[in-house]
Write a structure and sequence with these properties.
heterodimer, A: alpha/beta, Rossmann fold, seven-stranded mixed beta sheet, about 45% helix, B: alpha/beta, seven-stranded parallel beta sheet, 6 helices
Chain lengths: ~180, ~180
């Protein structure tokens, strides 16, 4: 079974949760049903949670959606979740901390841009998807050829990890922000 | 020793909170003493223990309003911090960093300092009609600095607020210290 995990508080400032329900629906439409989408995070806005559940029911993928209903540090997640694919929303090429932590921990991470204005900003990495259709294609590809795709994702994530280490100039800039002269 | 004050409203598991922790640890490793100030939230949350475990001081209080008659000790604590930040912040800290523009309205008039940094941790896509919900006044002080964490935020802010932005804008990427 392919596990797709999203680490995020269920809250109003993150409005792309239904995208994963859509992905679940499309996967089912295309005849693939051996997957589970898990939302990992506290439920801060109950209406958002209810909308996810209701939409999943309407699209008949309710049994493919799961919630931890609480925030869990990523390194403390159960092994069956850790071995899955961590889905991370991006804004163009920008990745937030859940994505950075995910690649830092060596988890298989899939990125998807949520800002349509920035579709053309995406990189050529197989696991950095410009839109939801590309994510669906990637999941189907994983199902077909898991070992090859996993290997490529691992390589890509290692390359991306380097982007989140500070080089000397960046560290120097940050120090100057914290302890400015004068 | 240099000192930095880092302000937010919570220490739960989350991206803005992770940024706060990384900044505090970075400061500590660079001989800048960090103090973390959590406003309007007295709960002990996930990153409290982690910061305290690293020897980083975490203070929970509020600075406006400070009335708290059912908890006089908390009220005195609030009064002390309100006065300290309004009149003596420059003396105690080399810079003041506020994480999240959503927290800036709490500190804009209550903390006086020549080196205030306001970290923008959101993009417009997260807001209704793709518009930030902040008052334009928070960008109006030319001595302040808005810190963007990605290259898109700069354009988003100028597109929405235009000439109202007097503050400087700098880019500082998200980072991890994988030796932690």
């Amino acid at each position: 079974m392919i596990r797709i995990n999203l680490v995020a508080r269920i809250a109003g400032d993150k409005n792309s949760f239904l995208d994963l329900v859509y992905i679940a629906f499309q996967l089912k439409q295309q005849g693939f049903e051996d997957y589970l989408v898990t939302f990992i995070g506290a439920i801060e806005t109950i209406e958002i949670y209810q909308n996810i559940v209701r939409m999943a029911e309407l699209l008949e993928v309710g049994d493919k959606i799961d919630f931890t209903k609480k925030s869990i540090p990523m390194h403390q997640l159960p092994d069956d979740i850790k071995s899955g694919y961590f889905f991370a929303f991006t804004v163009g090429m920008f990745m937030g901390y859940s994505a950075i932590e995910s690649i830092n921990l060596g988890f298989k991470t899939i990125f998807c841009n949520v800002d349509k204005r920035l579709d053309c900003e995406q990189s050529c990495y197989i696991n950095v998807c410009p839109n939801l259709n590309a994510v669906i294609d990637l999941i189907l590809m994983i199902n077909k050829d898991t070992a090859v795709v996993d290997k490529q994702i691992a390589i890509n994530n290692q390359l991306m990890k380097k982007n989140y280490l500070l080089n000397a100039d960046e560290a120097s800039l940050l120090k100057s922000l914290m302890a400015p002269n004068g | 020793m240099k000192r930095v004050l880092i302000i937010s409203n919570k220490l739960t598991i989350g991206g803005a909170e992770k940024l706060l922790v990384e900044l505090a640890v970075f400061a500590q490793k660079n001989n800048i003493q960090p103090t973390v100030l959590i406003l309007d939230n007295y709960q002990h949350q996930y990153y409290d223990s982690i910061l305290q475990g690293k020897g980083i001081k975490v203070v929970h209080t509020r600075i406006r309003p400070i009335k708290h008659f059912r908890a006089p000790l908390k009220m005195m604590h609030s009064a002390w911090w309100a006065i300290k930040l309004k009149y003596f912040a420059q003396k105690y800290y080399d810079s003041v960093h506020t994480i999240g523009l959503y927290n800036v309205e709490k500190v804009f008039d209550t903390i006086t300092h020549r080196h205030r940094y306001f970290w923008n941790v959101n993009n417009s896509i997260q807001y209704f009609n793709m518009e930030y919900s902040y008052q334009q006044e928070i960008f109006g002080n030319g001595e302040d600095t808005i810190v963007s964490i990605n290259k898109y935020q700069h354009g988003e802010l100028y597109q929405q607020y235009g000439d109202a932005i007097k503050a400087k804008i700098v880019l500082s990427k998200l980072f991890i210290d994988d030796t932690n």
